[in-house]
């Protein structure tokens, strides 16, 4: 056998044995929050398998521009200043994650994690994911037009208005813990009733506190405020049919994407008409009670008594004045 001919198969076996414990580097998961509130922080995670290779570097990109790089074991972290609106917290970043502070709208976009192994081949793998930035409401929704009390059969007409946000908040009504829809829920466009669909705004019906709120920076338009109405006729619960008082609890929930939820509650006091009349009679002085035509026997009697007292006081005052004048004249 030729020695050269025998050498090449042997070399191939040795080379393949050396690669037996080594596989390709692979980025298995890239975790980027789909939505982040403006002004909030975000942490991006990159999980990878070196496959027996030696890590050379982990690079982070937004679009095509690199903004962060870190070496093996968290060494040599680098932040690239050409993305001036990207604030990286180096102390909270490591070889498998990068921590971004004070997220702004310009930070929305596609993020890429790129992992490379040592030479001579510097094998590389990457994954990408998108992140959007939303403007969250600065406070919860406001419920207006709640009356002090309601009688059975009376119509309730409430409005719920969200604080400015982008995208606009989705508002949901519930009565006693159960979500309600049509025909009780009314959505408005310029003061007119619209169908249930994408929430819309009612500029004339928004709380005055939001007229010049976050919209003053020119970043949130008028349609960032949503208003939803709730209309229904109240009834007295069966278990309270002979009682004097009942409570119906309504709530308005504001939702923005998958990252924001705020609930506002309002209690509606329902008073049984018969019980309300008996309570009023017991607590009201007789001289203040009146019939439907504006008069009563007790009212007339009380009225005559008051007239007599007034005349009596006037008589005593005049008599005392006359006595004082007479005494003064005699002294002169």
UniProtKB/TrEMBL annotation:
The UniProt entry, under InterPro entries, shows:
Ig-like_dom, Ig-like_dom_sf, Ig-like_fold, Ig_sub, Ig_V-set
What protein does this entry describe?
Answer: Beat-iib
**What PANTHER family does this protein's entry cite?**
BEAT PROTEIN (PTHR21261), BEATEN PATH IIIA, ISOFORM D-RELATED (PTHR21261:SF15)
Specify the superkingdom.
Eukaryota
**Matching PROSITE patterns:** IG_LIKE
Residue ranges crossing the lipid bilayer per the database entry: none
Q: What Pfam family is a match, any one?
A: V-set
């Amino acid at each position: 056998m030729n020695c050269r001919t025998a050498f090449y198969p042997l070399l191939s076996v040795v080379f393949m044995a050396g690669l037996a414990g080594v596989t390709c580097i692979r980025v298995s998961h890239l975790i980027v929050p789909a939505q982040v509130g403006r002004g909030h922080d975000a942490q991006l995670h990159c999980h990878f398998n070196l496959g027996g290779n030696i890590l050379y570097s982990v690079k982070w990109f937004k679009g095509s521009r690199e903004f962060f790089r870190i070496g093996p074991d968290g060494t040599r972290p680098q932040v690239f200043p050409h993305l001036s609106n990207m604030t990286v917290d180096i102390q909270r970043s490591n070889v498998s994650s990068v921590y971004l502070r004070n997220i702004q709208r310009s930070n929305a976009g596609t993020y890429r994690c790129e992992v490379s192994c040592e030479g001579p081949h510097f094998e590389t793998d990457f994954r990408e994911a998108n992140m959007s930035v939303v403007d969250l409401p600065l406070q919860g929704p406001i419920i207006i037009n709640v009356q002090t009390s309601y009688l059975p059969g009376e119509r309730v007409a409430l409005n719920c208005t969200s604080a400015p946000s982008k995208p606009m908040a989705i508002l949901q009504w519930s009565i006693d813990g159960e979500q309600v829809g049509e025909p009780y829920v009314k959505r408005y466009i310029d003061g007119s009733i619209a169908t249930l669909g994408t929430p819309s705004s009612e500029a004339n019906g928004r709380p005055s506190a939001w007229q010049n709120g976050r919209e003053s920076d020119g970043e949130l338009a008028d349609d960032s405020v949503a208003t939803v109405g709730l209309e229904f006729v109240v009834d007295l619960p069966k278990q309270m049919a002979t009682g004097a008082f009942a409570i119906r609890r309504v709530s308005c929930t504001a939702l923005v994407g998958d990252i924001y939820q705020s609930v506002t509650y309002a209690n509606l006091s329902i008073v049984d008409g018969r019980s309300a009349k008996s309570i009023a009679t017991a607590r009201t002085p007789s001289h203040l009670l009146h019939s439907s035509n504006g008069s009563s026997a007790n009212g007339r009697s009380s009225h005559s008594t008051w007239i007599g007292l007034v005349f009596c006081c006037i008589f005593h005052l005049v008599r005392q004045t006359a006595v004082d004048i007479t005494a003064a004249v005699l002294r002169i």
